[in-house]
Amino acid sequence: MSTTKTVRWGIIGLGWFGEVHAETLADMPGIELAALCTRRADRLAELGNRFGVAKRYTDFRQLLADPDVDVVDVVTHIDDHRDITIEALQSGKHVFLEKPMAPTVADCDRIVEAAGRAEGFFMVGHICRFDPRVAQAKQAIDEGRIGKIISMHARRNLSKTIGRMVLDKISALMGDGIHDGDLMLWFSRAKPVSVYAQEVHPGKNKYPDGGWAMARLDNGAVAVIESVWHLPETTPYQIDARMEILGTEGAIYVNCGEAGLEVHDAAGNHLPDTLYWPRVFGQRFGILRAELRYFADCVAQGQRPDRITPEESRAAVALLAAAVESSQTGKVIHF
Amino acid sequence: MSTTKTVRWGIIGLGWFGEVHAETLADMPGIELAALCTRRADRLAELGNRFGVAKRYTDFRQLLADPDVDVVDVVTHIDDHRDITIEALQSGKHVFLEKPMAPTVADCDRIVEAAGRAEGFFMVGHICRFDPRVAQAKQAIDEGRIGKIISMHARRNLSKTIGRMVLDKISALMGDGIHDGDLMLWFSRAKPVSVYAQEVHPGKNKYPDGGWAMARLDNGAVAVIESVWHLPETTPYQIDARMEILGTEGAIYVNCGEAGLEVHDAAGNHLPDTLYWPRVFGQRFGILRAELRYFADCVAQGQRPDRITPEESRAAVALLAAAVESSQTGKVIHF
Amino acid sequence: MSTTKTVRWGIIGLGWFGEVHAETLADMPGIELAALCTRRADRLAELGNRFGVAKRYTDFRQLLADPDVDVVDVVTHIDDHRDITIEALQSGKHVFLEKPMAPTVADCDRIVEAAGRAEGFFMVGHICRFDPRVAQAKQAIDEGRIGKIISMHARRNLSKTIGRMVLDKISALMGDGIHDGDLMLWFSRAKPVSVYAQEVHPGKNKYPDGGWAMARLDNGAVAVIESVWHLPETTPYQIDARMEILGTEGAIYVNCGEAGLEVHDAAGNHLPDTLYWPRVFGQRFGILRAELRYFADCVAQGQRPDRITPEESRAAVALLAAAVESSQTGKVIHF
Amino acid sequence: MSTTKTVRWGIIGLGWFGEVHAETLADMPGIELAALCTRRADRLAELGNRFGVAKRYTDFRQLLADPDVDVVDVVTHIDDHRDITIEALQSGKHVFLEKPMAPTVADCDRIVEAAGRAEGFFMVGHICRFDPRVAQAKQAIDEGRIGKIISMHARRNLSKTIGRMVLDKISALMGDGIHDGDLMLWFSRAKPVSVYAQEVHPGKNKYPDGGWAMARLDNGAVAVIESVWHLPETTPYQIDARMEILGTEGAIYVNCGEAGLEVHDAAGNHLPDTLYWPRVFGQRFGILRAELRYFADCVAQGQRPDRITPEESRAAVALLAAAVESSQTGKVIHF
User: Fold this and answer.
1) Using a CB-CB distance cutoff of 8 angstroms, which residues of chain C are in contact with residue D3?
2) Looking at residue C4, what is its pLDDT?
3) What gap in Å lies between CA B333 and CA B315, rounded to an integer?
4) In this predicted structure, what is the pLDDT of residue B282?
5) For residue D70, what pLDDT band results from cuts at 50, 70 and 90?
């Protein structure tokens, strides 16, 4: 056996998704989970012990200063994205940032600028691009198999149980619409001309539980985004995520909600996740792993990631932020 | 960055599936595609050049003798499984063998015996066990969520286009039923008591195009396997593979045929593979990769693989071989 | 407005399905629900009052003697089918008999004989033949669109909640397999050569909760019937009924379980019946109505019903009775 | 046998759907297809001969003057709806009018007014209300099973093959959106507050091939309508029609496109209609029949139809006409 280089990873932000990152990274070959950071000391101890990570920080600047960290993985609250990311880029680290890039286009502009000046690599985790269903859809579109796109619809709905946990941090329309906004612009290689949106707010959290956005793109297509985090507690869906992409010569249908497994037990009916980050034999399998793998490989090979550019991540925020503005003002927003 | 060991892999057998192995292994971190072997010199040159593999053999014994190979990956015609595998085990290499283990139980017995004496690790590639849909089904069963299994059905049907390419080597019932036979015994932790089968042979190849087997297991369950490689050329299914597992307290449904992507283009309707070994951004994503990863990790860490034992692989062959005997004699076969 | 004749209907047997018959007939134009019969006086009063039927009998012979009844509709326990049907036919009435025709082939033979001598019309209610999904499948087969049938599978599974109510009267394999046995012989225009079956009996009722039968037909096809009345209480299926019909040139898939409506409410997930006899605006819509309509039209127009012959109904019983015999003896039954 | 009254039916407009009406009415008990009317003499002769209808008119006023016609069934081009309907109502006949009621709200107002003064009964054929999937959804909503509606989406997409035949008469958004607009107002018992829409026009017909409308209702719900008549020629869908109705306490999903039958033959894959007006044993089965039955029963029993009121039909036109105005002006339309 010969040898290869290992990429050392530090995670900032240890909420539930930071933990999923840790679980995924922990057993990936060629990757070392090298450092963890959160302001909550007990959480830091818990995950540090669980994953056997010695380097533990409550201040993210300490992690940025650690020479034994190659990649900084930002999985914090969206409101902290801008400052941590910019400082991390300035520190010379490679930065992997969870989506959405930042709450506002102005914040995004500053991140894009910092990324442009940085030596380290930078990518926002638009995980759906690594979904084999989505990636093959993109490939079919690029091959011209459905002609020119004329209409797209994306649904990404969640149980109110999940909604309640997240809706004080971000709205459904911004939180999940960001995925589909990004995918629709990527699929169509188009820019939005206008967007109109409506939101609903039946719950008691800070942000609206659901929203619909309708964009006109500069290639003539209509793009409609639906994101409602208010499905009943009994919903079988882990996530009801699907897309319809209609072209002049064909049609593509993606279904990430009915993903090949249905379990009916005493507690009801369940359609578990089988691809995003399911636990398989104790390992986190699937798309998140592939996404982190991609970034690690870029770092190991010194090859700047080009699958998702900072400009694209900014464009998705711009689309959804305009949708939220439309929802709040009742006006059609033109770009 | 630190370093890890690399597992050096040699493939014997370069048909279409040996090529898929090569494509998958070629870009896996910690793995080196070190050697290739086939009797066909032109094919050897083609794939050797494509994957940049210097060590190329037309005689498998040369590959077995190569000290720079850690794992021997046997992807040959089933009739060659026994002899190559036994010699590979005797050579001290780790051996990964494609399913089914061998054509007969007697052959399997000899392989099991050789594996028992060998220092190298050995595993038959029952790929479906690494399927996140299937693995999560197994986990739900083991957690008791569906109670005691009472009835199982598995369908694994293919287009006649594929059938015509394979049916001179193996029957549909043995070729694909082996997957489901293995899974059903694994799910139920039971042994077959009897099996009855019927086959159909509408095509012109050597082996029957389709077959049905009905087994009684020693836990009282009925297990029914359907494998028909005669779907119309227009079938949208890449593979129509699904399972139903009914228990005293619940039910599980697995669907690997409708895997979240549907493409309608000028050529018709398509339900591409999104999990077994789809090409995503030029990489082979998914279950095959996870399976090979598992074996490589076992080798790298010096930990004997225990997810699939040689005895289990033999048991699946025993079940399907009895089914074929039933089909040929018209009799119920008792174990 | 001009006028048409009305067919006067008398129902013998007022269990839950007799009641569904009554509900369906009650508002059909050209039909008068003229008489009701059951041994249970309270039930007779209840339904007589509800449907405004004046003629009420506790002895079926009284109903047979009533000159104001044109059609006798036998919806009794299967064990009473033979005697009531034969006497009804001898009385000169038209007879509509619920499936299965009778418990044994010998009983069927006597009914077939009586029907042959009778002046009145006779039909067994193989309701699935009137299912537009099934009827269109039959039409596609007859048009040669899938070539020659090589393999068929039918599943007709129910919740254990329903199973417990019915399994003291009839087994799952006979009770629901009769539908699919009839359809498979109808589709293929073939005769069974042999049949093999296995049943499971996890419940505490008299008859087995589930069964699988595998028949070889004289056109070379394999026909597999699955009937398990032991789905969990949480199953979303009103009935999980589906068929796969594979031919040399095509394939047909029928799905009667996922019938276009899914309701997720506080009690769980539900896939209601939308076609057999759903209540729509207080009326019983669909297939049962179409079936009874057909028989009424035959009677009104004096045209002997020919869609389902007594011989066909007998053949379905013969197939399933042989399957039950196989299950009980462990032997393959040859015809 | 006793007797009942027969309702005599006259059809004005013998395009493809007028013919489907004729086929359906031709064999319904209690109904007599009494008269036919179209300006095309050859078409009149063809259908008159086929259905054995003696009374044939090329001028609709002749049919209105015929004393042997009870019901006038208007199945003409939408541009002729207003004048024929008003004259028919003034003639004292009962009038069944195909949807949409009329092209403009002003036209609708005049029809509503005429209906209010008429002695005959009047109903617009919003056929989907008679769909057992839809009607049961309505019932579940009315029972409070999903709480208060917060979001609705309806898709009703067709092949471009059909689009090309219809798009010179009406746009996709108006032509099929009228169904869903009506259903959404019916489900929610709400009124629209505002609507915004976008259309696409990739084809060469007069009207846009597809459109999306987003309405805000006065109960706070968002209602989104999708109608694209540009699916590829290879689409398996007869119609891809589905609805999602999300409430505060539950969710309902209706799928009319995958209706239980899939045929794969040499020509491709097909998901035939099994409920709207499929041909079953030579008869037109299903929802259209139920709808016409309802109106005929109202007439026969002298009971004014109340399931669909003229005001409701007008409201659906008002919603969709505003959507079209929004699409044309780029503005949000407020009611």
Assistant:
1) 3-6
2) 60
3) 15
4) 86
5) very high
Q: What is the mean pLDDT of chain A?
A: 97
List chains adjacent to chain C, taking adjacency as at least 3 C-beta pairs closer than 8 Å. A, B, D
Cβ within 8 Å of B, C 187-206: 194, 196, 198-200, 202
Instruction: Give per-residue pLDDT as tens, B222-273.
Output: 999 999 999 999 999 999 999 999 999 999 999 999 999 999 999 999 999 9
Task: Nearest by CB to D220, from A146, A200, A214: name it.
Answer: A200
Indicate if the pLDDT at residue C39 is higher than 80. yes
Q: Is C69 in the B-facing interface, judged by CB distances under 8 Å? A: no
- Angle made by CA atoms B238, B244, B250, in degrees to the nearest 5: 145
C-alpha distances (whole Å) from A295 to each of A1, A70, A75, B27, B271 are 25, 11, 15, 14, 29
Q: CB of A70 within 8 Å of any CB in chain B?
A: yes
pLDDT tens by residue, C204-222: 999 999 999 999 999 999 9
Burial of C136 (0-12, 13-18, 19+ CB in 10 A): buried
- Structure token pair of residue B227: 């494998």
List, for residues C247-281, the tens digit of each pLDDT value.
999 999 999 999 999 999 999 999 999 999 999 98
Q: In 3-state terms, what secondary structure has residue A60?
A: helix
Residue B177 near residue B320, CB atoms below 8 Å: yes
What band does A181 get if pLDDT is binned at 50, 70 and 90?
A: very high
The dihedral formed by the CA atoms of D24, D27, D32 and D37, expressed in degrees to the nearest 10: 40
- Count CA within 13 A, CB hemisphere, residue B314: 16
* pLDDT tens-digit map of D90-107: 999 999 999 999 999 999
Report residue A307 CA to chain centroid gap: 14
Best residue in B264, B270, B291, B298 for a mutation probing chain A (most A CBs within 10 Å)? B264
User: Cα separation of B247 and B188, whole Å?
Assistant: 10
- What's the ipTM? 0.96
The CB density around residue C174, as the number of other CB atoms within 10 Å, is 22
How far apart are the CA of B143 and the nearest CA of chain C, in angstroms? 16
DSSP D189: T
User: Does the global pTM surpass 0.90?
Assistant: yes
Give whole-number Cα distances, C176 to A42, B275, C13, D102, in Å.
59, 36, 19, 49
Asked whether the predicted pLDDT for residue D3 surpasses 70, the reply is no
**Model pLDDT, residue B3:** 44
Q: How far is B203 from chain A (nearest CA, A)?
A: 31
Cβ pair C298, C306 in contact under 8 A: no
Residue among B146, B150, B242 with most chain C CBs within 10 A, to mutate: B150
Contacts of A301 (CB under 8 A, 6+ apart): none
Closest C-alpha among A24, C242, D245 to residue B253: C242
pLDDT at position C132, please? 97
User: Which residues in chain A are closer than 8 Å to C269, comparing Cβ atoms?
Assistant: 234, 236, 268-269
pLDDT for D116 beyond 80: yes
Q: Is B272 in Cβ contact with A29 (below 8 Å)?
A: no
Dihedral of alpha carbons A9, A181, B257, C155, sign: positive
